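Task 17 of the worksheet. Students: predict the tertiary structure of the chain below and write it out as structure tokens. Keep your answer in the requested format; marks are given for formatting as well as content.
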Amino acid sequence: MPSPCNLKRKPKPGVGRLSLSRREAFEFLKGAPLAAISTVSHDGSPEAAVINIAANSDLELIFETIQTTRKCVNLRRDPRVAIVLWRGNETLQYEGVADEPDRYVLAPLLETYFAAQPDALGHCGWPGLTYFRVRPRWIRLSQYGRSFSVRELRFGD
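Model answer:
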């Protein structure tokens, strides 16, 4: 039985890979309340978890966690993260660097977070609750529907 895809045809260089605008990335991030985050354990092994997220117009992500979780321990030692968000047949890959902002920087981030995750207001009394901000280094938005595309956005160091 012949394959429905023409596997012999090689893709042309650069086809399907376009530049992603900040606005498009922000719109996708705003519409995806859950994400999978991957951090690096003390022995270099990957560790993943699902998190509630919010994004601001600088494309920074904000999420909460408890200080005793593996992701918190890992991020305090090695702040590099890989995050994946999804919506239907679209995925957004996000690589960045996390930090725990002080209370002055945290205030506007929490406004963004609670606007996107209103149920999280009920978590405020949880013991050991902390918040992380992730600043982007690279973002890729892939669409796997009838009109396949891969678009990227890179950030300076």
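Marker's comment: The helical segments are 22-30, 70-77, 103-116. The chain is about 20% helix and 40% strand.
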